[in-house]
């Protein structure tokens, strides 16, 4: 199931979905401004003429080297997106976006500079490279400890997300029709007052080149969707949602979820939820569905395992981490059932892009092994702080405008040997939680609160009636310490995230968290108005 | 060297080119372009420094009630042609939108004081120079400083085949610092159009003092406490109330305020208004859809006065549409003191909260939210700060905790990690639910 570094060397797909045949850009604009007309080149591979990207990249790298920088890299990126949103039985918006530009990093005597631009004339690229150096020189005046990058082999490669159906080639009418039908279907339930649906896809074509000699081309695709219903009644309103998890795949991924077949159930559950009881606050055994656990893993394991946070880089924004380097290799993070593995080689997972934005190859390594904290997500900049000689390849930017930063990898909970049935059988009085609801965690990732999208009581080993407004609160290592069973691989599910906020200026991180259902004993279910 | 942003005449020309290319019934255009520099420091040194040019153009086309939107960051003739073509192709294929509204006709916009030349002029080296004393102040107290120093200049435009046209320049400077000790921290954040108005020196001093004062924090049990909320903390808990002011949700039944127009929803001294022309706020002259922003009371003396009406809902209810709440001023007509220190000095026992973090909705029905205290939580006894405290999680609703305000200051500048800039008082509140404690 793992993706190779050199998957298939398939050619870039001709973008027929745009309907356009000739899209022109590039060449030799004389002005720095993005709105100036440019000499045109016919290009069949996408809106931006990419035939000279390698040349532009080397031009920027030469500029950086000649300015006396010890390292530099450039990412030229073209992004195409499509987002369709339905609301209350209507298509509320259809948006296609196209975005292109490049980000250049320069390391001057151990200090970083980064500049990004959108003009593809040679003069624009050179000017932006010079700006990156100017920024690095300014940084150097406040440098105390020079940045030293961990070694990485030179890579010359091309990475393509495998896809069966190009989402940009699926007729728009078909997508709109699906979303409107989903809305109509959930409104068949009389108490449903609001509905929504969405389909989203993004393709990134990227050329990475570094002064060390790595040259990597990417053609990456991601897709996701879902729908939801809000029901009113019982002096309340409540929502229920169905997710097609974000994944690196084509439109076949959306089709494989057959959303229409789920609409009736989701609408019924929204109505049942609005009439459901609230739990009596107290300690409960929880069985958590993968669609819920994915977020718990993200917040309570993923973020604290980012080494830049542990080193204080995010102290002013996203926060730091209770998993400080002195705990590496010895801290008891959870029970012996808890095995969390980072895997940026797993096909379909969002952070499986072959290489990260440091040009480091994707890897698989333990974060928590038999309950003990074993590893961090790292970049070439921070790896040496924990005595590691190679980066874990977890350094990514959310586009050409953004500088690469340490990001959570595809951290997943490894399957155990239980079944869903055996997990439930072990519970006398508990709650089954599915999906994402209210979530919040402190800036060192100790004290969290999670809700969910749907809740069922578990009575004497059986799932019973729905509940609503369930929230639980805990302290990360105590919570994972109470895990006494994880279901087997048959129950393993994967959930991608594209809205992980971090960095200043803010960026969105993409990664996938997979899990099998797991059981947690005596967790504090709370009343927000106590 | 940074690059020159799209000028008004260049935008005007682009609009004309787009309108010439378009065959739709309606064409609606938005544009933004910016140069932004951000220096990020941590561990008392620079860890990241970026300079980014970021243009964007969006075209929305409509045939009857069928609409499509396409955006690009290139506006050479071929890209414009492609963008218009795509928007129109989508519009032709999309189903009719019963809520579609044709673009507004030409509007009159107020000129908002949104631009400052000295903010735009700051170079990467200027950002470093301004950061140095901040780092030195932390280092001098054996503290570790992390934060940002940034400046940006932006332009944005809106135009349509109906004759609608707007163009606005703005600038934005930001400064934030988290000063950390072994077991303590202090925080500050400000943003202003004018980089000389950030108050860097005073704010650095306050953040450093808080990091020193909060050393060896005590743990006290979770529970209901009287609190003094600094303006940033007020912004955090108050912000979610703004989500509920939309008329569409109000009338379709999924707003916490449904049915409460004209009713008392907050303390009878509290008023909430938009003030786009306020020089200490970051307001603009027009909203994204081209509606003019205006001064407006949303809540006056605790009574819900106005909702914001998207254009479709406004038409349904035969009222004027309104831009979303922005450039917010919260004010309190009641017992008033001069400063947070005055609130502290008149307090017998309370918890002083600098800021909240990771605020999320728990129950939309009554706007209950949760979050954590962060970077400066203290126990106040007999008019003095007696100790730093371990941080708390809270569960509260602005509709509950602002029912009764004991005392307040004048509105002050506040911006948080999760909310835009507002002017809000510091409050003393008699009852606030701090539901659990964390480990630091």
What's the arrangement of secondary structure elements?
The complex is a heterodimer of chains A (530) and B (440).
Chain A: H1 53-66, E1 71-87, E2 90-108, E3 111-117, H2 122-140, E4 156-160, H3 172-187, E5 192-210, E6 215-233, E7 236-247, H4 252-255, H5 260-274, E8 282-288, H6 290-302, H7 307-310, E9 340-343, E10 364-369, E11 372-373, E12 395-396, E13 405-406, E14 411-413, H8 420-425, E15 429-434, E16 439-441, E17 447-450, E18 454-459, E19 462-467, E20 472-475, H9 476-481, E21 483-486, E22 493-502, E23 507-515, E24 518-525
Chain B: H1 8-21, E1 26-42, E2 45-53, E3 56-63, E4 66-72, H2 77-93, H3 117-121, H4 124-140, E5 144-160, E6 165-180, E7 185-192, H5 200-213, E8 223-229, H6 231-243, H7 247-252, E9 270-274, E10 296-300, E11 303-304, H8 311-316, E12 328-332, H9 340-345, E13 349-353, E14 356-363, E15 368-373, E16 377-381, E17 384-388, E18 392-396, H10 398-401, E19 407-408, E20 412-414, E21 422-424, E22 427-437
Parallel strand pairs in B: 8-13
Antiparallel strand pairs in B: 1-2, 1-3, 1-5, 3-4, 5-6, 6-7, 8-22, 9-10, 9-12, 10-11, 13-16, 14-15, 15-18, 16-17, 18-22, 19-22, 20-21
Helix pairs in contact in B: 4-5
Return the structural class of chain A: alpha+beta
The stretches of 5 or more residues of chain B where confidence is low (pLDDT under 50) are: none
Radius of gyration of CA atoms of chain B, rounded to a whole number: 24 Å
Mean pLDDT value of chain B: 96
Strand content of chain A: 25-35%
Radius of gyration of chain A: 24 Å
Silhouette of chain A: globular
Quaternary state of the chains: heterodimer
Secondary-structure content class of chain B: alpha+beta
Quickly count the domains of chain B: 2
Number of alpha- plus pi-helical segments of chain B: 10
Described by the principal axes of the CA atoms, the overall outline of chain B is: globular
* Annotation field: number of helices of chain A: 9
Q: Report the span from N to C terminus of chain B.
A: 44 Å
Q: How many beta-strand segments of chain B?
A: 22
Helix content, binned percent of chain B: 10-25%
The count of strands of chain A amounts to: 24
Largest sheet of chain A: 9 strands, mixed
Spans of at least 5 consecutive residues with low confidence of chain A: 1-45
Mean of residue pLDDT values of chain A: 91
